Amino acid sequence: MEARKFTGNFTQQEPIPEDAIAAAVEVMRSGRLHRYNAVPGEVPEAALLEREYADWQGAGFCLATASGGTALQIALRAAGVGPGDRVLTNAFTLAPVPGAIHGVGAEPVLVEITGDLVIDLDDLATKARASGAQVLMLSLMRGHMPDMDRVMQVATDCGLTVIEDCAHTMGARWNGRLSGSFGAAGCFSTQTYKHINSGEGGFLVSEDAEIMARAIVMSGSYMLYDRHGAAPGPEAFAEIRYQVPNLSARMDNLRAAMLRPQLRRLDENIARWNRRCGALEEVLRACPVLRLPDRPAGALRVGSSIQFRLPGIDADGAGRFLSACAGRGVELKWFGGAEPAGYTSSHHSWRYMRAQSLPRTDAILAELFDMRIPLTFSVDDCRLIGAIIAEEASALTESAN
After folding, report:
1. Average pLDDT taken over every residue of the chain
2. Which parts of the chain have pLDDT scores under 50?
3. Which of 20, 37, 102, 153 could form a disulfide with 261 if both were Cys (CB 3.0 to 4.6 A apart)?
4. CATH code at 305?
C-alpha cells in the first residue's frame, strides 16, 4: 500500500481578515500612512493599536515598532545597555536575539539550555556571576516557557534586569500571567509567521515609565510623544527628550490598521493553534523513538510550532529523515546542521561574536527537529503529519538497529 502523503503548504498563512483589509485600504485612501500624520481630532492607527495591545496585555505602556528585532534593540538601549556590556541570553534562540545584543555594541553571553528547550537556571546563575552581566535577554524560544518564578528569583539574586523576547509567546502564560509581564520589558513580533501578521512589526511593553519614555523617543517620536496611545505622562520626557537619539523605528499606520482587527481574534486563534498542536503532539508522544519537551504545570503555550528530538541521530541519519519526511510532504527543520539554512541557525554560525563552549546545548540541538503549524492546517491534517513523522522516525531507527 502506498504511504500516505500530506499535500499542504507549510509557509501558507491564513489570509488577512476582510475587516483588516478594509481598514488598511481606508488608511491608503487617506494617504496618512506616517505614524504621526493625522487630521485634527483624529487618533492615528498606530496610537490606537498601542492602547489596544496594552489593554490586551495588561501592560501600563506599549510601543508599536517596525519589527520584533527593533523592539529588542530599543529595549536594550532603553535599559541602559551600551558598547562593551555583556548581556546573557539562551544559547537556543534565533539570530535576531544575539543580533540585537551585537547591534547595540554589547557582547552576548550564551547560557546552556535543558532538554525541555528552556534556559538552564544553574548555568544562568554561574555565568551571571562570572561575566558581570547586568541584563538577561530571556528568549522564550519556540514558545517554551521556563519556571518564570524561578527565573525571576535567579535574576533578583544575581542583580539582573530581565528583558523578555516574546516573539513566539504572544498569549502564552505562566500560572495565568502573560508572557512579557515579568521583566522590565517584553518584546513581541508581528512578522508573518507569528501570532498576528503585518509582514513585519512588533511591540515593546513595560511598566517602567523611564524605559518607555526612552523607547518612545528612540522610536522616532521627535517631540510628538504625546501622540502615542500608551505612553507615560509628559514629565517622563522632560529630560529624556534631549538625551536620546531618534532611530525612526515606530510602526506605521498601515500595518497598525491591519493588526487591530487581528488582535480582536487572537484569543480565538490561540485556542485553534492549541487544538492543532495538541492533536499532533498526542501522535508524536505515542511514538517510542521520539522525545518531546515537557512543560511545567504552570505553563500555557501557544502551539504555533512543535519541536521533538530523535535521540542518538547523526548528521547522515538526520539528512535521511528530513528527506523521507519531505518526500511525504512534511517540511521539517533541523537545528543540528553544520551550516545555517533559512531561518534556522545555531551559535556556531554567529561569527560576529566570540565562540563559546556549550556542550549540553550542542548535544540537544544535534537531535532537535522543528516544524511550523499554520492555521491553514486542520486538526486531521496535524494527525496525518504526526503519523508520517512517527512512521519515518520508527523506520529510521529500525534500519539503524
Report:
1. 96
2. none
3. 20
4. 3.90.1150.10
Tell whether 180 is covered by a domain.
yes
**What is the pLDDT, as a whole number, of residue 1?**
57
* Statement to judge: residues 258 and 301 lie in one domain: no
In whole angstroms, what is the distance from residue 45 CA to residue 229 CA?
Answer: 9
57 and 103 share one domain? yes
Residue carrying the nine cell digits 535577554: 137
Give the pTM: 0.96
Question: Could you tell me if 280 and 347 lie in one domain?
Answer: yes
1 occurs within a structural domain: no
Q: Which residues neighbour 190 within 8 Å (Cβ) at sequence distance 6 or greater? A: 68, 196, 197, 198, 200, 201, 202, 203, 255, 259
Paired residues of 110 in beta bridges: 89
Domains held by the chain: number: 2
